[in-house]
Amino acid sequence: MKPEKLLLALLAVLPLMPGCATVAYSSKAQNGVTYYCPGAGNTDFGDAGIRAGLEAAGYKGEVAAYIWTISFNVALDQTLRFNAKGKGENLARLIEQFMDKHPGVPVNIVGLSAGTGVGIWALENLKEGYSVENVVLLGSSLWYRYDVGKAARHVKGKIYVYFSPNDAILAGPMKIFGTIDGVFGEEGAGSVGLQSKGGADRIVNIRWRPEWEKYGYYGGHTDGTSSAFVKAVLSHHLLTPAGADAKTRDAAAATAPATTPPAAASGSRRSQ
Fold first, then answer.
1. 13 domain residue, yes or no
2. For position 204, what pLDDT does the model report?
3. Is it the case that residue 205 has pLDDT exceeding 90?
4. How far from 176 is each of 2, 56, 187, 213, 239, CA to CA, in Å?
5. Beta strands 203-207; 135-138: pairing state
6. In angstroms, rounded to a whole number, what is the distance separating the alpha carbons of residues 205 and 26?
7. Terminal CA-to-CA distance of the chain, rounded, Å?
8. Long-range contacts of 241-247 (CB under 8 A, 24+ apart)
9. Residue 39 to residue 119: CA distance in whole angstroms
């Protein structure tokens, strides 16, 4: 079947698909929830690394995988942006429902690649009075200048953006298929850091460091979810509530300002 016919066929059945994705909770959720939004195609199984790493670091809460994708086709999920945005809105409702049932229980969001867009759109769609503790974006395929000002208003702590110039997926295929928010030919936040007009005081850009290779994070697109790296570094953002001492919370994460990306290509464009 030709790609365009396959796309039309999938679009035809989308209205028949369940409109809401759900998450599974165990009794651990009473201690807190970290929602994990995987990348396009849901091929990374990063929640396993997040779960194992956080548990090894002493996290007592739930790591809840939020499966927003509709296929195992990375390119398809990356380009059907209306689905990612819609699932972000749905995640916002799930977070609100959880917070209503468990007031005061800390909630975090971790996203990988296109899943970082889903996590940010969930934050944008939260109602007033609902906020998460901290957010971690790994290998983000959001445009590096995406404005997270609206999302940041629903974050008590920080939005930690781990970026790597060694990310071959963001340097190549993503520029062809576009960022998850629909910008073509430009850098993703996971390559150069997030340079947002809004919410700058909430953003912490953290560049990949060679010494993290010993934890299985080589600067690639998905290895930021290595359980050893999660335990040694990411856990410091997720175990401690936003109001805790910053030195304790960020002890293992050396921060650095985002690099300046190349000038925007004249042919780059945002999808409608």
1. no
2. 97
3. yes
4. 19, 38, 11, 29, 37
5. unpaired
6. 32
7. 27
8. 241/106, 241/133, 241/156, 241/157, 242/133, 242/134, 242/155, 242/156, 242/157, 242/158, 243/156, 243/157
9. 11
Question: Which tokens go with 65?
Answer: 């995988």
Domain boundaries, position 225: 31-249
Residue 203, domain member (yes or no): yes
The total number of structural domains that make up the chain: 1
pLDDT exceeds cutoff 90 at 12: no
* Spatial separation of the C-alpha atoms in residues 48 and 42, rounded to whole Å: 12
Residue 9 belongs to some domain of the structure:
no
Tokens read off for 204: 């912490």
Q: What is the CATH number of the domain that holds 179?
A: 3.40.50.1820
Q: Is the pLDDT of residue 245 over 50?
A: no
Q: Is 26 among the domain residues?
A: no
Rg, the chain, Cα only: 17
